Amino acid sequence: MTAGVGTALWAAPEVFMAKKYNDRADVYSLGVVLSELDTCAIPFADQAIGKNGKLDGMAVIKLVTQKRAKPTFSESCPAPVLELAMLCLDYEPGNRPSAADVVQLIQSRIKPALEAY
C-alpha cells in the first residue's frame, strides 16, 4: 500500500480513513495474505459481506474501518502463523509489528514450527 497500489480487501483500515499511513499498512496486508494462504480463498470470502450474501468490497471497507471484520483462518492454521497474522491484522497501526519484527517472528517461531512439521 505504501507504493500506492492495492485492492480494498487487502488494504489496512487507515488507508480508507483519510489518515496518514506508513509501512504498517503493508504489515496489515501481510496478515491478509497469510489468511489467504491458510484458507486458499480470497479474504472475507466466507463472510458473505454485502448484498445478497455476495462479497462487496465497499461493505468490507466499511466493516474493517469500523473494526468489525477481519479475515478468517482455518482451524488447522498453525498456531505460530495465526499468532503472527493476528498481530499484523491489529486495527491500530502502532500495535502491529514492524517489518523487522515480522522477520524476527518468522525466524524464531514460524520457521522452527514448520521444520518440526
UniProtKB/TrEMBL annotation:
Q: What range(s) does the Protein kinase domain occupy?
A: 1-114
A single MF term (Gene Ontology) = ATP binding
Q: Which PROSITE patterns match?
A: PROTEIN_KINASE_DOM
The superkingdom listed in its UniProt entry is Eukaryota
Q: Name one Pfam family in it.
A: Pkinase
The protein's name is Protein kinase domain-containing protein
Species per Swiss-Prot/TrEMBL record: Aphanomyces astaci (Crayfish plague agent)
